Structure formats: structure tokens, C-alpha cells
Amino acid sequence: MTDLTSLAGRTALVTGASRGIGYAIAAELLTRGASVTITARKIDELNAAAEKLGAGSDPARVLAVAANAGSAESREASVTQTVERFGSLDILINNTGINPTYGFLMDADLGAVSKTFDTNVVATLAYVQLAYRAWMAEHGGAVVNVASVAGLRSNGVIPAYGASKAALIRLTEELAWQLGPKIRVNAVAPAVVKTKFAAALYAEGEEKASAPYPLKRLGEPEDIANVVGFLVSDAAGWMTGETVRVDGGILSTGTLGAV
Questions:
Q1: How many CA atoms lie within 13 A of 241 on its CB side?
Q2: What is the pLDDT of residues 129-175, one digit of tens each?
Q3: Taking Cα atoms as reference points, which of 168, 82, 170 lies closest to residue 130?
């Protein structure tokens, strides 16, 4: 019987993968048999992550490429090196995201807002374009964009970030329509996950932050990685244009909890 969850023989590129959700996704894809390129800006953290990932699987199936998602040269280098090293690019995970501004939008620095959209939305489209031209247009593939529940419901804490993730969710739907049937494009929308990136959202304690959640805990990076692994596998072969909430049930309560 064919294992629809296996990714053996496929190649993935995961952006922003030196830690947190991106690292967990890379580890999950390796476990399923894929070869994986990881990117991040900080070379020391990136190399340490690659070494750890390789130790848990096969070092030959892990490639680290120092890259800033906001740099066209970096994006092109990461895609080019992935295809040169592994011979394909079947899976693209757009995980890189930034959130440099908080609070009242009337006080927001417009430069920071522009940078947020450039990294969270424009860079994602740029990566998809590169993957399409380098491999997926001819051979097909699967893309997953890491969005957020903040893109599905308004909040007063991280509104610029939420607006960028709402745009990313719409971008996911547009890409799914335009790139089918050979390329599937989906998204995941996490709530608060215990990472360095989200630490400010549970700074007053995990118990307080998780109290509104029906499942009474915050997310772990592996919670997101497990869903992403499914979405890029053949087991999700009839899913595209979907944004999967991985939120501990918080949206079902009508609030965003700590977000």
C-alpha cells in the first residue's frame, strides 16, 4: 500500500528555520523522508540548526543557506542552491515573518508597517515565483504559507502584523487558483505558539495566556509542523487554497486570547 504521508525523494525549502516553527517544520519534513534546505539571517544559529537536524536524520539531506527573506539576491540564492544540491524543489514553506510594530495604528511607524508587508507578503510571493520558475511550473509541487489567527480576526495588539497575515491568506487563495492543478498552495494560521518570536504575547505567564483556550495550553512548534507535514503530502492531495487554523480552539471562543 502506498504511504501517502511519505515525502521520500522530495526536496523542501523552509524559510526562517533556524528555530521555532520553521525548525520544527524542517524536522518534520526530514522525518517524512524529504531533503530540506533551511534559511535564516544569522549564520551561527543557522549552522547550529542544520547540524542538529542532520544529527537527527541524515546530514546529506540538510542544506543551510544564509538568507534574508527581504533580499532578492538571498531569495534567488537559496532557491538556486537548493535545486543544484538536491535536483528539485517540490515543497516550499514560507515561514519567515516579522512584527516590528505594536498597538495603535495611528501611532504606527509607516516604515515599519511597509517592512512588515514587504517581508510577510511580498517576499512570500517572490519565493513562490522563484520556486515556480526553477522547478514547480514543469514538475508541480506544494506550498504552505505560515499565516496567523491574527489574519482572521481583528485585534488591538498586533494590528499591522494581523493585516499583513490577512493579505497572506488572500494571497494563498489567489495562488491556489492560478497555480492549480499541478501546484497546491495552502496556509496554516497558528495562535500563540511558544517561540522566541511570540514570547511577548505570554510574558505574564503561560497559565494566564492559555486560560482562554479550550485546550488550556499554548501551542508548541510541533503542533504546527505536524499539520504542515500533512498539507504538503499526498494525503492532502485534494486540498488547495485552504487556511487551516491550528489555534487550540481560541477562535471558537470569539476572542484571540493573548493576541
A1: 10
A2: 999 999 999 999 999 999 999 999 988 889 999 999 999 999 999 99
A3: 82
Identify the active-site residue in 127, 161, 202, 213. Answer: 161
**Residue 191 DSSP label:** -
* Residues in the chain, total: 259
In the chain, which residue ranges form alpha helices assigned H by DSSP? 20-31, 43-55, 72-86, 110-117, 123-131, 137-139, 159-179, 206-210, 221-231
Q: Tell me the domains of the chain and their CATH numbers.
A: 11-253 (3.40.50.720)
> Cell digits for 188?
496554516
pLDDT in tens, 55-109: 988 999 999 999 999 999 999 999 999 999 999 999 999 999 999 999 999 999 9
11's CB contacts (< 8 A; 6+ apart) are: 34, 35, 36, 37, 82, 83, 86, 87, 88, 89, 90, 91
How far apart are the two ends of the chain, measured CA to CA in Å?
43
Query: How much is the pTM?
Result: 0.96
Cis? peptide before 181, omega within 30° of 0: yes
Amino acid symbol at 19: R
| Catalytic-residue membership of 161 | yes
